[in-house]
Amino acid sequence: MIEIKGITKSFTIHGKSLPILNVSQWQVQQGDRLALLGPSGSGKSTLLHLLSGVMQPDQGEIWVNGLPLHTYSESKRDRYRAEHVGYIFQDFHLISSLTVKQNVELIVPQDWTKKMTKDQVDYWFERVGLKDRQHHLPSELSRGQQQRAAIIRAIIAKPQLILADEPTGSLDWETAGDIMSLLLDICEVEKMTLLTVTHDLHLADMYPARVHIQDINELPRREAV
Ligand code: ADP
Ligand code: MG
Question: Per the database record, which ranges form the ABC transporter domain (predicted)?
Fold first, then answer.
């Protein structure tokens, strides 16, 4: 479902090109749930950005669900992201002026009827434990509750790939464990592929599998810039 072949990615920093990723071969099967580990600055977020189509590799191939992302224009990648990827951020990225229900409704597919939308919204708010919180603004919820709402937004349209970039990085440890197990459960039941960046080894241990970015990135280890 994810296949990477010979990708490189560099950034130009202070006029100098700095290589960040060099992955010759990497595959993730549909339905795998994988924790991605590695030190700060080692290219974990960059890898997620490549898989979500926010960035393009300098060279090489990225296939997701059989789609050749590396050949896509920016607008085609935007459409790919909307249809195939759910993204979960460390700091939630909820729109502060909208209720959490409105935040979720923003990404509901246009062909859903009103009834289908309501049924799905009700189902998911109950499923994540926010049954009576649909009409709250993000600021009226705890950080853990905000991340639960952000999880609904990521999964409600049933994308096949969920990318989570340190989703528990700003939560206390107990909430972090709850959020991680919620995410793992949902992706298992819905048969979604889950790739989660975390540097918490205990949370990574909850995953059926772990990968260290330096096992797939062939660049020598270096200090973060
Ligand atoms: P990680 O998520 O593992 O901490 P990142 O993928 O965010 O690492 O970043 C890897 C390296 O690439 C860092 O040194 C960072 O400064 C650099 N980098 C990331 N994105 C950009 C960008 N858009 N422009 C320039 N440098 C970047
Ligand atoms: Mg990062």
Answer: 2-225
